[in-house]
Q: What sequence folds into this?
């Protein structure tokens, strides 16, 4: 197992290298450049040329890439932002990532806390009113985009009922361990609406997958064997069915985790949360090359690590899966 | 035949699976009559073979007797108590005495449990043994079914089909049951392994005075292992008698057709074997024919067969048949 994990971690290097290289080349292939406009005005060609020279954009791409790799690997420096003058990509990530991670983790926990029990109950009460009810809610949860749910929640709970603030985030650096906020009342007041907005969709996907997988598992022959042993129904479900049905759920949790902890564009925009999500999107429009490549690299790192954790969990869930 | 001798008495047992239609409001539009009004006894210490073609309700009968399916109607008396009326804790306690060996040794063992847990779990939930005692008992059981006790911490996928079926047998034996339903325990195994498992079942029966309901479609295997044999067709028992009587003097046309299909391992006799070939297909159990269930394919049909269902009655000493031909 240890050998397997080491080998997998070594594989991260070529995978991440390929991702960075592709992003690096492709983003430069998009027409336009980072210095085409400042506000509404376009810059004089001489200024653009000077800026390009400053950031080595006039060099061949392979040379730029070698320079970038050297900075990232040796100096752990993801470069300067072309758009936000005086800010580096490292600073942007350092400031925005912890907040996105807080929101992402809370939403994921909410998604699991609602999704797993809802899926289990729906499967055990298949084709009853409870099942149809929870399936309906789950489809609703998947179908309503955050861009609708967020403003709706703000309108009801912030504007009409005045229970929660309309926007912003209730925690600031420094954070414990780099990302854990002080869980005081202010933090929760600001966190609840965005967490519900983001968590609903996650819980709905988790519930649907849990239901489908558990339904398949409880039809297995060994569940009948368990009943024949004379086990109580609760034991049959918990000990024999649940763990066997968790593999598909764990599988989606990996990418889901990487996606939400690196920030979500819509939810963060709606609630004015200074997270990382918007940088994934705006940096492309701005042709802010270092931010595009830096955020992509960060997301990829989260994704490969999450997938490794998923694969390790497989081995625990199913003894037939062995790595060596 | 005294009452004490009877371990299991099945009376007018029915198991219908509903066919429903409708999306929101489901209404029943029919039923698959998997087991349709069957009655028979299983005597203490005997092996009752239950044969019939695929889909005739053999497995459903076995599962319904053990209440893994709840019967639609009828009674199953086990040591005089009606299992069909029991539920919950009371029924779970009865499971100590009646167990099942399943057909598919690949699917019927939980893939993420060790052999020790699969075999030992019943001991624990019924409060028979736990901890070290349980561990020793499991080792003992593994040895009993011819597996190395050292395998206790392995997982089912590390075993071959025959070994896995031995695990299934050890599991069924864990609680010292008196009655075991063997639901085609050898059909999924290689022919070379089948004899081993059958011999194991026979040895265990002799050692622990077990009573078997042996479900199979392999007629020669049933002949080998059974004391009495019941022949099932489309949810009903057509004929039930002792093994020798059944194979030497089959009375029901369906039994005769079934037996005529068995090849005989003697070229001289095989030469003269006359196969009775049945025409047509088995009718759907959702819509069985009126009268005798076999009337659509019977080679010796009478007028009455289409209208009246034949009674399942004793026509000779311990020879029961449901057929209008035998008056």
A:
């Amino acid at each position: 197992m240890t050998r397997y994990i080491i080998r997998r971690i070594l594989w991260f290097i070529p995978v991440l290298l390929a991702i960075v290289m592709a992003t690096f080349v492709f983003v430069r292939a998009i027409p336009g450049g980072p210095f085409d406009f400042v506000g509404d005005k376009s810059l004089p060609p001489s200024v653009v040329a000077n800026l390009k020279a400053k950031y080595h954009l006039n060099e061949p791409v392979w040379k730029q890439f070698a320079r970038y790799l050297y900075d990232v690997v040796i100096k752990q420096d993801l470069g300067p932002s072309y758009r936000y003058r005086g800010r580096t990509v490292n600073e942007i990530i350092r400031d925005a990532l912890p907040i996105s991670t807080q929101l992402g983790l809370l939403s994921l926990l909410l998604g699991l806390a609602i999704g797993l029990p809802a899926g289990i109950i729906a499967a055990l009460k298949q084709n009853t009113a409870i099942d149809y009810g929870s399936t309906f809610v789950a489809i609703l949860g998947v179908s309503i985009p955050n861009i609708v749910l967020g403003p709706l929640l703000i309108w009801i709970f912030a504007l009409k009922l005045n229970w929660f603030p309309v926007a912003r985030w209730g925690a600031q650096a420094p954070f414990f361990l780099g990302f854990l906020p002080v869980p005081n009342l202010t933090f929760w007041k600001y966190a609840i609406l965005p967490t519900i907005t983001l968590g609903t969709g996650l819980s709905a996907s988790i519930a649907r997958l849990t239901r489908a997988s558990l339904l398949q598992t409880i039809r297995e022959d060994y569940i009948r064997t368990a009943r024949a042993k004379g086990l109580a129904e609760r034991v049959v479900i918990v000990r024999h069915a649940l763990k066997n049905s968790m593999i598909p759920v764990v599988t989606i949790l990996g990418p889901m985790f990487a996606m939400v902890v690196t920030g979500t564009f819509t939810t963060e925009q709606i609630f004015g949360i200074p997270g990382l999500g918007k940088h994934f999107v705006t940096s492309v429009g701005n042709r802010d090359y270092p931010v595009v490549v830096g955020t992509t690299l960060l997301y990829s790192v989260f994704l490969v690590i999450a997938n490794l954790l998923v694969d390790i969990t497989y081995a625990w869930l199913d003894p037939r899966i062995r790595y060596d | 035949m005294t009452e004490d001798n009877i371990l299991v008495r099945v009376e007018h047992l029915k198991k219908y699976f509903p066919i429903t239609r409708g999306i929101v409001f489901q209404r029943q539009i029919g039923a698959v009559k998997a087991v349709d009004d069957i009655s028979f006894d299983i005597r203490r210490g005997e092996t009752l073979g239950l044969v019939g073609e695929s889909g005739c309700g053999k497995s459903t009968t076995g599962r319904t007797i053990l209440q893994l399916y709840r019967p639609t109607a009828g009674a199953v008396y086990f040591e005089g108590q009606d299992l069909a009326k029991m539920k919950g804790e009371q029924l779970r306690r009865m499971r100590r005495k009646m167990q099942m060996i399943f057909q598919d040794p690949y699917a019927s063992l939980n893939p993420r449990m060790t052999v020790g847990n699969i075999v030992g779990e019943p001991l624990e939930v019924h409060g028979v043994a736990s901890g070290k005692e349980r561990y020793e008992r499991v080792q003992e059981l593994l040895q009993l079914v011819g597996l190395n006790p050292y395998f206790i911490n392995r997982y089912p996928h590390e075993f071959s089909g025959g070994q896995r079926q031995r695990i299934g047998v050890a599991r069924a034996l864990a609680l010292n049951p008196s009655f075991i339903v063997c639901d085609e325990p050898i059909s999924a195994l290689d022919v070379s392994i089948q004899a081993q498992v059958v011999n194991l079942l026979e040895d265990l029966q002799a050692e622990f005075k077990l009573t078997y309901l042996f479900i199979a479609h392999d007629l020669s295997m049933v002949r080998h292992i059974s004391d009495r044999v019941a022949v099932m067709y489309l949810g009903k028992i057509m004929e039930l008698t002792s093994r020798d009587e059944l194979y030497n003097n089959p009375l029901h046309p369906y039994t005769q057709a079934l037996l005529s299909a068995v090849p005989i391992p003697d070229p001289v006799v095989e030469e003269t074997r006359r196969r009775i070939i049945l025409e047509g297909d088995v009718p759907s159990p959702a819509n069985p024919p009126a009268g005798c269930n076999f009337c659509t394919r019977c080679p010796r049909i009478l007028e009455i067969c289409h209208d009246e269902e034949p009674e399942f009655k004793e026509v000779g000493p311990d020879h029961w048949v449901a057929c209008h031909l035998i008056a």
About this structure: Residues 16 and 33 of chain B are 5 Å apart (CA to CA).
